[in-house]
Amino acid sequence: MKKKSRIVRIGRVSNIGNLESSDSIKDYIKTLNNSELLYVSDDEIEDNFSHTVGICVEINFSGESTSEKLKPHDPSTIFTNLPVARPNGDVDEPGGYQPDYKCLTPHQRWKYLNWLSNITDQISFDYVFIYYVGLERQLFFGDFEKAFDEILLLKKYHSGKSFDSYSDSALLNACIYRRKLDKLREIKGGIKNMQIAVLIASCKFKEELSIKQTIQVFNKTRKINRKYMNENYKLFVNVLPNILKQEFSTYEFPLYKIVDYNNISNRLYMQFSNSSLPDKFSRIYLPSILFNAEIELVIQELYKKACQQCKKISKTFKST
Fold first, then answer.
1. For residues 276 and 140, what is the distance between their CA atoms, to the nearest angstrom?
2. Where are the domains of the chain?
3. Of 8-17, 65-74, 255-264, 281-290, highest mean pLDDT
4. By three-state DSSP, how is residue 136 classified?
5. Count of Cβ atoms closer than 10 Å to residue 220 Cβ
6. What is the pTM of this model?
7. Cα distances (Å, whole numbers) of residue 192 to 62, 125, 169, 172, 188
8. Nearest to 204 by CA among 262, 146, 121, 138
9. Mind giving me the DSSP string for 94-116?
């Protein structure tokens, strides 16, 4: 069995210095373990600068795509002509909804570049986000394997509900787009939030959804009153496998058996957090599994039967 490779940090580099020139910044970046994942530019920044993108892609999940090469600048781009200064004390944290390297102060840039030598160190999430959006592009247009492992490393040390959600989405959809089915299998079971790509993977691989994932499906399905399930969660979790066994002869949910995956219509989804990507890429069409009428009906009936069984059990306990 082939051993999985992982990015390992061997410690902080010691030659960050003051980074007072463009050349010193570039020399420092070359010493980083993750230098190949960084976007670096010598371009001068103008007052009316706006983000542009590396490649504009029209995605077609049948395997066809068209692309147009553009300037490779995004929020993570390290502009070597921007000033960097070693701080003497505490540094104010970056502000804004989606921070980028260009808008950092010289002291903040020094702090960010210093952190890049060991991304497992705790730091304001603004810096993590700047690095992450560059990795998101790498998943699709650069070194997929390294970017994939680097994002998993970030998630391990900088976990958060929002970050888990959009990074899970990027990883799953990159696996589908790049045809990395082995990687998709690797992460599918550990996704914390139900993503459309998890359902797509289950249909593609003809694999059942776990009880936890099935409950997440109930939470995403329309016309389901989840109040009873939430109020009687432990009982519901115990009852659901038996209902699945009665309906599908398995203790997990075989979503792929309900309808032919290839016949499900597509729906527009927002999948990526990199705001510099064009709509053609950041908004993609995927099979609308949970909006399929046939699938919805089966899920609603499954939920209804589980609730009925829970109520029957509860009533029995009360009468004894």
1. 14
2. 14-126
3. 255-264
4. helix
5. 16
6. 0.69
7. 28, 19, 11, 12, 9
8. 262
9. P-SSS--GGGS-HHHHHHHHHHT
Distance CA 150, CA 270 (A): 22
Q: Cα separation of 89 and 91, whole Å? A: 7
Categorize the per-residue pLDDT at 47 as very low, low, confident or very high, splitting at 50, 70 and 90: very low
CA distances 225 to 101, 131, 230, 307, Å, are 45, 40, 10, 10
Whether 135 and 155 have beta carbons less than 8 Å apart is answered as no
Does an H or E element contain 284, and which? strand 283-287
C-alpha triplet 215, 218, 222: angle, nearest 5°:
170
What residue type is 290 in one-letter code?
L
Which of 219, 178, 221, 175 shows the shortest CA–CA distance to 201? 175
State how far the Cα of 178 lies from the Cα of 175, in Å rounded to an integer: 5
Q: What is the DSSP string of 25-52?
A: HHHHHHTSTTGGG--EE-PPPPTT----
Residue 291 burial (CB count, 10 A): 13
55 CB-near residues (< 8 Å, 6+ apart): 67, 68, 69, 70, 141
CA angle 313, 315, 319 (to 5 degrees): 120
- Joined together, the tokens standing for residue 281 give 């890429």
